Amino acid sequence: MTKKAIITGITGQDGSFLAELLINKGYEVHGIVRRVAIEDPNQRYWRIKNNLNKINIHAGTMENYSSIFKIINKIKPDEFYHLAAQSFVSDSFNDEYSTLSSNINSTHYCLSAIKELDLKKTKFYFAGSSEMFGKVHESPQNESTPFHPRSIYGISKVAGFDLTRYYREAYGMHASSGILFNHESERRGYEFVTRKISYSAAMIKLGLQKNLELGNIDAKRDWGYAPEYVNAMWLMLQDKKADDYVVGTGKAYSVRDFANIAFKILNMDYKKYLKIKKHLYRPSEVETLISDPSKIKKKFGWKTKVSFDKLVERMVINDYDALKKRV
Ligand code: G4F
Q: Is 153 a catalytic residue?
């Protein structure tokens, strides 16, 4: 029997890679998408445009329980990947209420609908985040490290993580959370620092931009390659037992390191173009995140293959080649 999967956030970086992975594995793939996205496919579907004929799109609002309930009831999926969220940490400082309510409620609605429909076969995945560790209590961070979120986004993810565990423990649901460290790719949104740097480096090289404006360049992150992370999500749902897993590379680099390598690839020195801007600093920063992915490695043999240098190179070359074609 063909397996059915629902992905929320299918138009995003992770959703698009996950859709491809599941299509290649023979799944019937369903995506829940806002009506505005359906009305503006050129703008919103660029990551999934090559697979649109293989994806079943459903118009739905993550803030609306009945909308989610109806779609889940219609599809009765084997697997449910809840990736949709307001995922830009910076924005969560300016837009506390909608980040908190939409990130928490959407997770609650999905879990509650699966429970109310008594879909015992449906396995649920929640996209947790290393932002939950925030002001870290130990390094590297593993599944037992206490959470200490430093943003409304991080707080919303801790609540989503707790909801997922609660439904697992209270109702025996197969509900797992991946605690994913930063993962990037050629499909990353332009507001995140890695894409901002790769795109700016390419623009500067081609004479289309003068400077690169950044905030805290000493922040360190554990950056991996996104397609490998969606495979980790899938692996979690193939196990008999639901559980939570840290997913990362186990190595950390600074924003400065990223900029240095990115500009070097195009034979430039980032220091010549860098402008530090106060307004790009966050009111409370997460200084360093570094994962201990030994649990997922031991359980599923999962580990990253694309190195940090290779990741930066892929992103920069992709932006440079695409821009060059346009000018
Ligand atoms: O690229 P970022 O915006 O990613 P951040 O905040 O680490 O969050 C990402 O990873 C999380 C997993 O840990 C996800 F849950 C989340 O959804 C998202 O995908 O910022 C990375 C670092 C920060 O320390 C930030 O202060 O870069 C620093 N930074 C410095 N200048 C900047 C900038 N970040 C952005 N976005 N833009 C800047 O100009």
A: yes
